[in-house]
Amino acid sequence: MKQNKKPKIVEPVGNASQIISRPIEQEVQNCYLDYAMSVIVSRALPDVRDGLKPVHRRILYAMWRMGLKHNVKYRKSALVVGEVLGKFHPHGDIAIYDSMVRIAQDFSLRYPLVDGQGNFGSIDGDAAAAHRYTEARLSVIADEMLTDIDKEVVPFVPNYDGTITEPTVLPAKLPNLLLNGAMGIAVGMATNIPPHNLTELGEAIIHLIEHPGAAIEDLIDILKGPDFPTGALIFNPLQIKEAYTLGKGPIVMRAKTDIIESSNGSFQIIVTEIPFQVNKAVLIEKIADLVKDKKIEDIRDLRDESDREGIRIVIELKKHTYPQKVLNQLFKLTDLQTTFHVNMVALLDGLQPRLLDLKSILEEFIKHRQAVVRKRTEFDLARTRERIHILKGLKIAVDYIEEIIRLIKKSKDREDAKLNLMKRYRLSEIQANAILDMRLHQLANLERMKIEDELKEKSKLEKELMIILGQPKKVLQIIKEEVRYLIDKYGDARRTQIVTQSLNDFKQEDLIPNEPILILSTQDGYIKRLSPTAFKTQIRGGKGVTGLEAKEEDMVEHLISATTHTDLLFFTTKGRVFQIKAYDVPESTRTAKGRALVNFLELGDQEKVAAILPLLEDRSAAKFLAMVTSGGLIKKTAIEDFVSVRRSGLIAIKLKGNDNLKWVKLTSGQDEIILMTSQGKAIRFSEKNLRSMGRTAAGVRGIRLSGNDLVIGMDILDLQKIKSATPKLLVVMNNGFGKMTELKDYRVQQRGGTGIKTARITDRTGALIAALIVDDKNLSEYATGDLLIMSQSGQVIRLPIKSIKTASRATQGVKLMRFKNDHDKIASVTLI
């Protein structure tokens, strides 16, 4: 229908009322707005004065009318549901009962409003029993919410069918909006208010009454933060201050946990309190799924030992794990850590939704209580004056009792007696009726004195009530006294602990000791972490100990010395790089197989780890990474290009043909580089002859190879150390032979040459397998530096470096390791 046309008036048909046509857009808009306001005002949002939604208010009022106070026997919940459904809330028994169940749960409300008997659900998400099985009555807190409701202190409106009236708000001696919090989703808005501690909340109200100009910061000093029924921990007071000041903001919650060490050296994580609104059964199921999917691999067992005394979840850890690391993983991946998003939206005067800060909510409560106390005082004053009026009439009757008796005897009936009394003693109709209703025992002297005493008492009360109405400060004093009484009677200790330190201040490595470790990986892609003390020092030529129970076809490939806090760069044969922390590598025993690398790195098909580079914490001296392929190519790239390595990896070098990346070392830009081949050739050249390239470059020739020769090693010579040390080149051969040769025997050449002989290779010695630079500091009698050699079958020997013979370039060396298996070979070598 076009908008510019006037509404068309249609003549009524029969008894039909007048029909006015209008654009459908306008009709839908008006209807939706009506619906939205109905949801906002009559269903989803709480009133700032009593903190209740209509359904909860109706449940409490219906139970009050039924006499179900906290000190009477329980009645069937079905009876309560029927009363609410039939008289106040015709929206279905399930909706009413579910609302009633929630305000009876001690894990949902900090101070439950309904005292339930029977199965009212559990923190595991179990549903409550049907309302025909459970029983309920009001709690003591709910009694305080309804006190004085029969004194005309709050407005009443007709119920849905107009047969009776219901309150639009409760008197609420307690600020229930903050006491128990509220949650609700309306149309276009929502509310999420956390619960608080009664003692702190009461003290904040008293402080605000005494200091109306107090800032929110002053109130926060008293009302520290939310106090959840499930306890747990909340962090960062700055977030709490922001939420209270702006009316919205996140507050991080964490479970309360303890780490316990058992007698066998393993650890247990004990969870005794969980965050608010977290389903315990779902939480345990999530942890179990993480273990099943191997996202958390250090958990050995998981048990729920909770009972009526409280929550107790036991998480047993495997040996040689860092319990704090596992706990941090649980915080990150499960609801052991959640965020409560505060959004303090409530209805002002039951009609206007507003986002309120902490002070505004408390001010609105105080304003409500002022109105309640004033109306209660007016009600009491009216009743007092009515009683005084009657007592004055009774006193006249007592003073002139004989005359009154004669007057009544002369009257023909009660009506005539009433008129005669009113005329003779100038009494009101109420006073006259009271005299006529007097009993004979009230004529006794003692009863006469009671009337006089009561009259004096009521007259005194009248003056006090008038003073209260005439002095607003008296009203505030009464509110303070009532709040103090509630604190003394119902106040309790805080359950939720507030941690002053921000979570952002915690680093995972701060919770893990920085210790020396060895990182060991195999050709088949298994890796493990173990302590250097697992291998004791032996004499040269020994057989060593077992360092790995590998499969027959698997061999040890990398042996890295580092610390637990070291960043490890994993360079693959395909030229990609990944990064993890050393402590993320699982710790294992000396003979254990380890864990597959694919659990940590996103490796592709036929892609293996070629080099593991530990990055030192102090990287001021290291400016570049030098990369060498098995085909003799070399490339230098700035280390800044590898500062941030994403989880899926980065390209480190562009490879040609079937060439593979094999070695990566840190350089300063002023060093010298030595490359060694399997056939005993070595070349030494200056790093200055190697320009820096981007990550995706392919590199240049480092050494020219002949036949089937391959590069088997590379090392960096720090020229600064040459001035104060005597560096030597340590070489190890396949069959367990090795030696050291002074580096001065290797002249500096141009990059890309064929090199010079570094060892005499024979069938007895086998091909060159490893080479690295050591200096004379490692050779002194005070040195702690050792050489760790591992065979392909997992046999390990640890030798003092000073025990290795120094010989010329063209010699074959001495026996460093004897094999238990005749077919065994050296797999890898590292310095400790």
| Helical residue percent band | 25-40%
Structural shape: rod-shaped
The percentage of residues in β strands lies in 15-25%
DSSP summary, beta strand count: 43
| Whole-number count of domains | 4
Average the pLDDT over all residues and give the rounded result.
Answer: 86
Number of helices, where a helix is a run of at least 4 consecutive DSSP H or I residues: 18
Query: Which regions are unreliable across 5 or more consecutive residues at pLDDT < 50?
Result: none
**Any guess at the CATH architecture of the largest domain?**
6 Propeller
- Calculate Rg over CA atoms: 43 Å
Can you walk me through this structure?
By secondary structure, the chain is an alpha+beta fold. The protein folds into 4 domains: 22-193, Alpha-Beta Complex (Topoisomerase II, domain 5), CATH 3.90.199; 256-335, Gyrase A, domain 2, CATH 3.30.1360.40; 374-486, Orthogonal Bundle (Topoisomerase, domain 3); 513-831, Neuraminidase, CATH 2.120.10.90. Helices cover 29% and strands 25% of the residues. The strands form 13 sheets. The chain has a 4-stranded mixed sheet. Strands 12-13-15-14 form a 4-stranded antiparallel sheet, covered by helices on one side. β1 and β2 (19-20) form a beta hairpin. α12 packs across α17 (472-490). The chain starts with 8 loop residues before the first strand and ends with a strand.
Which key phrases capture this entry?
single chain, 832 residues, alpha+beta, Topoisomerase II, domain 5, Gyrase A, domain 2, Topoisomerase, domain 3, 4 domains, four-stranded mixed β-sheet, four-stranded antiparallel β-sheet, 43 strands, rod-shaped
